[in-house]
Design a protein that fits this description.
Blueprint: E1 2-3, E2 10-11, H1 14-21, E3 27-28, E4 35-36, H2 38-47, E5 63-68, E6 73-82, H3 85-107, E7 110-123, E8 129-137, E9 141-143, H4 149-168, E10 175-188, H5 203-206, E11 211-212, H6 220-229, H7 263-270, E12 273-279, E13 287-291, E14 300-306, E15 309-313, H8 316-320, E16 329-330, E17 337-338, H9 341-351, E18 358-360, E19 370-371, E20 385-400, E21 405-421, E22 427-434, H10 438-460, H11 468-476, E23 491-495, E24 502-507, H12 508-513, E25 520-524, H13 527-537, E26 547-551, E27 557-562, E28 565-569, H14 578-584, H15 587-594, H16 603-606, H17 645-657, H18 663-693, H19 703-715, E29 719-720, H20 725-732, E30 740-742, E31 746-748, E32 764-771, H21 774-779, E33 783-790, H22 796-805, E34 812-821, H23 827-830, E35 838-840, H24 849-860, E36 870-872, E37 878-884, H25 885-893, E38 897-910, H26 914-926, H27 930-941, H28 943-947, E39 957-960, H29 963-971, E40 975-982, E41 985-990, E42 994-996, H30 1001-1027, E43 1031-1037, E44 1040-1046, H31 1050-1056, E45 1084-1086, E46 1095-1100, E47 1103-1108, E48 1111-1116, H32 1121-1127, ...
Helix pairs in contact: 3-4, 10-13, 15-18, 26-27
Protein name: C2H2-type domain-containing protein
Organism: Tetranychus urticae
Domain C2H2-type: 2-21
């Protein structure tokens, strides 16, 4: 039985219902209130001239919670209690329907989604109930009429219930108690004019003759599907040819206006698969994938969605193919092209493991094929830089966000300070403000500052000043001093506009690149984590017109660009607290800026960072207090400590010296000092970078970008970028981080220096050894750089022979995909540190009985085990394992068997980064201040990060500041979600369907491979041969080993390894102390510096404790360091290991939601005894690597 959604009449046949729909006059025009049949409604809709009012308000039981841009975006909210999603939508269906009718009447077409706040509960073993609350959001639906409302409701139920199932499944113990809040989020949709018949394709797509548009006024989805499944030879656009197939499919779930989100149900009901593509609505106008099915069904159709209209793609390859490409077959997911079907099929297997995105490769779409330094504009120093800081009141709050999360403070901006520094390190502008409107006042101050700086620059511009010698140099110049190419007729004179100094003869285009930057950098320390939220909250769109962000996610921004203001985070460059950085900076560098605001007499009091009683200052009245609060008022819940007496005495000295009348005066001095210290620190950092590399850090977002360009500029290297998508996929899927794993979960030393020495037992020591800058060592090695190509199959044997039988550095290198066997004869010897680690998912049935019992215990306590891919060293055979040639040679030398070679990439290689790293290392040795030493260390350590950058993971977030921008984003098929900050500002999240793969990821892959190789060589070629079975690896973490060694004298042994060791940090009176290998890359150092380790408790990766004498080193990833230091003991680790004890602690942190900052206390699980990277035996200590032959024996 089929029912008409409008009038309720029933029909036995679906065809009868379709016929009835064309006559049913129950569709009411929301503009003029007249009724029309479905057949005539769209025509009327285009012609209806009744003017509608567009101001939306509260409606019935729904409150208009927020709106922006004069109703372009809106959020309706209803807070009650419902038992489930299905009951909510059943109870509220009519109310939602009436609300959406009202919205359509006011706004016309909209995109709408539903958001719910869910409360989950579970019972703990002690009988108490635990609870948590989570927001879940549906997909966006396009709504033009209420005709298909029932299908939309069904969609919402399916999506939200699936999301709930994913949260509650896998033994989590969580049960949905109730739905607390219902939100209806709407975005006004500016439709293109006309209906399906009026849609016109861009000319470039029309000429391809690969898209077939149904000749219809409605139901274009249905007809496009039928055209794709039942192609006709003639008159392909005529609908009557497809009517005979209409009854073969159930189109009940899709209506005349079909949303993308409705198509999944249609696919399931009809057992077909559909891919959908669209056109990116930006300046590039590229075809991008919108919805891709990983598994193509026997019945499959490709559709194109443009201007709210579906087209049937009749020839996918012709549609994607460009006029200049030679490929004939294209991948449905990444749109990469191939010459034959066989190559395409091989490519699809790894490609479908990635999110569907159009991949833009080097050599296409004007993407360069070389990676080199060509950003000449980044050598020009910014004439002005602004340094700023916000302070906030921590207003007391008393709000339980969940049962385990408690909000105890809200952060409200109370003040800001900023100074502007010119090219000569002069502070030419300063403003310090305290008031309720600090965020808003900050933006106003920036506008005033911009005008001031423009006037200052105009007054200080200098014309060129040249002497006779310089004139002769210019006249005789035949080469551009910027790009070093020959000069032609476009030769111009280039000079510094600030000093008037002649710089050289240049091409006109090069001269334009040397212009002064037009952006004004504004530097905050911890912009991403704190100040950016206060800036966004204070935005005034009448002052700021264009806003863009470099997002980490929808809440955290790496950088913000507002008109010509460029907000940067100094913490992304200098990875330490402001206090530490200030202490490391030479005094003369600090006083250079401090004395421009303070007097000479003030300087002794302000050379170090001060302190504020942040948590004490919870109201504006505290600023009026007339004395410094007691020392305990300076307690910080984040650090779990207060200041020491010496610091408190210094603060009292500041109060007295500056004759503070109240706490407000003291606060103002603190703010000034903070801003000026930040100025001194970053200006020194800029000066060092400009002096050494000729690059201004203000052109970059972080240190990795800066040091990467510095290395390219210093070496002059031109790296080839990969232009073959299969090479990229092969390397992407083989990027494996550092090995972090526990091999033996408890180790106790037994020697005369330990507390419980037993002379009856063998003498043993525990050594904690760490490699100096492991990644820097690998970066100094020979690395791939150019001429990447596949090795033909008939040359594979010769390549393998070359790899296995040559030792010297070769000009040609290889990356291989192979099958390897791990013989059982090696399992015992290699159990501690298996070769060729893999990213795998360890299933429950691979765990030992001991581990399964822990899993059950955790589930009883409401803790579920997430099965995610982890890097696991194992003894299993390897299939299609991708590795560097030098790793392959080592693995084979150690006994692994090469069974098959699938494919090989060859390339030219050279140690092109070695000179840069050596230069940084030598400069670090010569540095005279801690600040400068840290600079050079940072330049090396940050280099690796850029070589491994994954552009697929970049987010796409837009900031809309007017209705036009919001409408533009809403209309895009990529429009995914939004949240409103104010009446005239909203954050919009878009799906990312295009990625440019222009990074040399082969470098990051090689660095990771060579780093592992170095660690394997240390273990198997040095320590293992010396100690054999007396060596036991307890724990390893990327660049470190913790060994238990049966030996009479560890330090005598280490002396034998002096060719590997850096003993420079040992006490000078220690017999091993020497500076011969000080800080040399790749050398090992003793982390304990000669101190004796008593015992190690290692529960799992990143969760271990080391006891040495009266001291301890405790590591617990995910637990606040202050909590580890104040609340956790080595006994807690032992209880967790030997008694399976679970340990919870209160963690204190800052969190933001929609850019509102709060301090929260979270009671979270700190310790769990489950480690699933190894097969743990019943003693809870001994482990086997997965794949070990003894596991099968144990199971038997």
């Amino acid at each position: 039985m089929f029912s008409c959604e409008q009038c309720g009449e029933n029909f036995k046949k679906y065809k009868s219902l379709l016929l009835h729909r064309t006559k049913c006059k129950t569709i009411t025009c929301v503009k003029c209130k007249l009724q029309y049949s479905a057949l005539n409604f769209l025509n009327h809709l285009m012609e209806c001239k009744v003017k509608k009012t567009t101001d939306i308000e509260d409606f019935a039981t729904f409150k208009l919670h927020k709106k922006a841009f004069k109703n372009t975006l809106g959020v309706y909210m209803k807070a009650e209690s419902w038992n489930s999603i299905e009951s909510l939508l059943a109870v509220e269906k009519d109310n939602i329907k009436n609300l959406l009718k009202y919205i359509l009447e006011k706004l016309g077409s909209v995109k709408v989604q539903v958001c719910v706040l869910l409360k989950f509960i579970k019972q703990k073993p002690d009988g108490e109930l635990d609870a948590t609350e989570i927001y879940k959001v549906s997909q966006m639906h396009r709504l033009t009429t209420m005709h298909n409302f029932s299908a939309v409701i069904k969609d919402w139920i399916e999506q939200l219930e699936l999301s709930i199932d994913q949260f509650t499944q896998r033994g989590s113990g969580w049960v949905l108690e109730k739905v607390k809040v219902l939100e209806i989020r709407i975005g006004k949709l500016k439709e293109h004019s006309g209906g399906c018949k009026t849609t016109r394709l861009p000319l470039i797509l029309h000429r391809k003759k690969s898209l077939l548009s149904p000749n219809c006024k409605k139901e274009c989805f249905k007809w496009s599907v039928l055209m794709g499944l039942h192609p006709q030879k003639r008159h392909k656009e005529k609908l009557y040819l497809y009517k005979r197939y209409e009854g073969l499919y159930n189109f009940k779930d899709v209506g005349e206006m079909t949303s993308i989100s409705q198509i999944k149900r249609f696919e399931r009901r009809n057992n077909i698969s559909i891919n959908i593509y669209t056109l990116s609505l930006d300046e590039k106008k590229k075809i991008v994938p919108l919805v891709i099915n990983e598994k193509r069904k026997e019945k499959h159709v490709n559709l194109f969605f443009y201007n709210d209209h579906y087209y049937c793609i009749t020839n996918f390859n012709a549609l994607i193919k460009s006029n200049r490409s030679w490929e004939r077959f294209y991948c449905y997911s990444c749109l990469s092209g191939f010459r034959d079907v066989h190559s395409l099929k091989k490519h699809e297997v790894p490609c479908y493991n990635k999110a569907p995105q159009r991949v833009i490769l080097p050599g296409t779409a004007k993407v360069p094929t070389k990676c080199k330094f060509n950003k000449i504009e980044k050598t020009i120093s910014f004439p002005y830089v602004v340094y700023a800081d916000f302070e906030a009141l921590l207003v007391k709050s008393d709000k339980a966000l969940t049962r385990n999360t408690f909000e105890y403070q809200k952060h409200e901006a109370c003040s800001f300070g900023l100074v502007a520094v010119d090219w000569s390190d002069n502070i030419i502008y300063k403003e310090f403000y305290r008031g309720h409107d600090a965020s808003e006042k900050f933006i106003e101050t920036l506008i005033e500052l911009r005008e001031f700086l423009q006037t200052h620059l105009d007054l200080n511009r200098k014309p060129v000043s040249m002497n006779n010698t310089e004139r002769i140099v210019y006249e005789s110049a035949t080469q551009c001093y910027v790009c070093h190419k020959l000069l032609n007729d476009d030769k111009v004179l280039d000079h510094c506009h600030l000093t008037g100094k002649f710089r050289g003869a240049a091409h006109n285009q090069c001269n334009l690149q040397m212009r002064l930057p037009d952006k004004l950098p504004i530097i905050f320390h911890n912009l991403k984590g704190y100040d950016a939220h206060l800036i966004i909250k204070g935005l005034k769109t009448d002052l700021i017109k264009n806003i863009s962000v470099i997002p980490q996610n929808t809440e955290k921004y790496i950088a913000i660009i507002m008109d010509n203001f460029l907000f940067l985070d100094s913490l992304a460059f200098l990875l330490s607290s402001l206090d530490t950085l200030a202490n490391n900076l030479p005094t003369e560098e600090k006083t250079k800026f401090l004395k421009q605001v303070f007097s000479e007499a003030d300087l002794p009091y302000i050379l170090a960072k001060g302190a504020l009683p942040y948590e004490y200052m919870d109201s504006w009245g505290k600023f009026e207090e007339r004395k410094l609060p007691p020392i305990n008022a300076f307690f910080s819940s984040l650090s779990q400590k207060t200041i020491d007496q010496q610091t408190y005495d210094r603060l009292n000295g500041i109060w007295n010296h500056f004759e503070c009348e109240n706490l407000g005066d003291f606060h103002d001095i603190y703010l000034k000092v903070d801003v000026l210290l930040l100025t001194a620190i970053f200006q020194n950092f800029r000066a060092t970078s400009l002096k050494q590399f000729g690059l201004d850090p203000c052109h970059y977002f972080s240190t990795p970008g800066l040091t990467w360009d510095a290395a390219l500029k210093f070496t002059g290297m031109k790296l080839d970028l990969l232009t073959d998508i299969d090479m990229i996929l092969m390397i992407e899927n083989a990027i494996r981080g550092g090995i972090s794993c526990v091999m033996s979960r408890y180790a106790k030393a037994n020697n005369e220096f330990t507390e419980e020495y037993n002379s009856e037992e063998p003498t043993s020591f525990i050594a904690y050894l760490d490699v100096n800058n492991l990644y820097g060592y690998a970066l100094s090695d020979i690395l791939p750089c150019r001429n990447f190509a596949w090795v033909p199959q008939n040359e594979v044997d010769g390549v393998i022979d070359e790899i296995l039988n040559t030792n010297q550095e070769r000009k040609t290198g290889y990356i291989l995909e192979v099958d390897l066997d791990y013989p059982e004869s090696l399992h015992d010897e290699h159990n501690d540190y298996p070769l060729a680690p893999e990213k795998i998912i360890v299933d429950n049935d691979q765990l030992s009985n001991f581990q399964k019992e822990i899993v059950s215990m955790l589930e009883e306590n409401g803790v579920k085990r997430y099965k995610t891919k982890k890097l696991v060293p194992n003894l299993m055979n390897k299939k299609k394992y991708v590795l560097h040639e030098r790793n392959l040679k080592f693995y084979i030398e150690k006994g692994l068997i090469l069974k098959k070679v699938h494919r090989i990439i060859k390339f030219e290689q050279e140690p092109w980064l070695r000179s840069y790293i050596q230069m940084c290392t030598e400069n670090r040795k010569r540095a005279t201040s801690s600040f400068e030493k840290d600079f050079w260390k940072l330049m090396v350590n940050s280099l690796y990060g850029k070589s491994i950058e994954d552009k697929r993971k970049h987010s796409k977030v837009k900031v809309a500041t007017n209705g036009r921008q919001a409408l533009q984003q809403i209309r895009k098929p990529m429009f995914e979600q939004f949240y409103i900050l104010d009446n005239d500002i909203a954050i919009i999240k878009l799906k990312k369907f295009e990625v440019i793969l222009d990074k040399p990821i082969y470098l990051g892959f090689t660095v990771l491979e060579l780093s592992k190789l170095h660690m394997y060589k240390l273990h198997y070629d040095h320590f293992k041969p010396k100690y054999e079975s007396k060596l036991s690896l307890t724990y390893t973490d990327t660049d470190s080993f913790i060994y238990k060694i049966e030996t009479d004298d560890l330090f005598k042994d280490l002396e034998d390894f002096d060719y590997l060791m850096d003993f420079s940090d040992y006490p000078q009176n220690h017999f091993l102390h020497t500076t011969n290998n000080k800080k040399k890359l790749g050398y090992l150092k003793d982390e304990m510096n000669g101190q004796i380790i008593d015992e190690v408790v290692a529960i799992k990766s990143k969760l271990y404790a080391i006891k040495y004498g009266a001291n301890k080193k405790l590591t617990a990833k995910g637990v606040q360091k202050a909590v580890v230091k104040s609340s956790i003991s080595i006994e807690n680790y032992k209880d967790c290991l030997f008694s399976n004890a679970l340990l919870k602690h209160d963690n204190f942190r800052l969190q933001s939601k929609q850019h509102c900052i709060s301090s929260v206390r979270i009671n979270k699980l700190s310790f769990s005894p489950l480690d699933d990277k190894r097969y743990i035996l019943d003693d809870a200590v001994s482990t086997l690597a997965f794949g070990h032959y003894r596991i099968n024996t144990t199971l038997d």
